[in-house]
Amino acid sequence: LVAVALDRALTDRRWVVGGLVLLAAATWTPSNSQQSTDARVPAFFEAGAPGLSRMDVVATVPRTSGDWAGGARPMQWQAVAGMTYRQTGGYLIGSTRSRPLVLEAPPPAFDALAGDPVVARRDLDELGVTVVLVVEQPDVDLTTALRWAQQVTGVSGYTTGGVWVFRR
Fold this sequence. Notes:
The chain is α/β, with parallel strands linked by helices.
């Protein structure tokens, strides 16, 4: 049957056109490989980030990154909160002496969630950070993040609307 089909396809243009149409149509079928990301927002941000103002500079855990899945969560939260605060990090297109293409802001020492707390505190001071927000997410070790935020900010923080707030 295959030999007959090939023989006909090579001698009759209708078979060639029909085969090409079927081949093209096969590429239209969904592959079910679409990826989605959870877009739920903690209640704290939906309420407009109470207690924060446009004068506040916020560092978030997790931080904004260039990761395709979930990297923009902090920017999403800021937008949902009505842009009531400024934040560190974000996307940019630039370069450095060692990297010809930089697509996100370099992370400060605080974002490592480990290391020398004095250096991390100095980095936050240089960025003008007034508030650290720790948001429970699947990719965040909450215990480590809370301990580090307390150590670096020097305050115990409080939780509200699914977010830990550390005002410096």
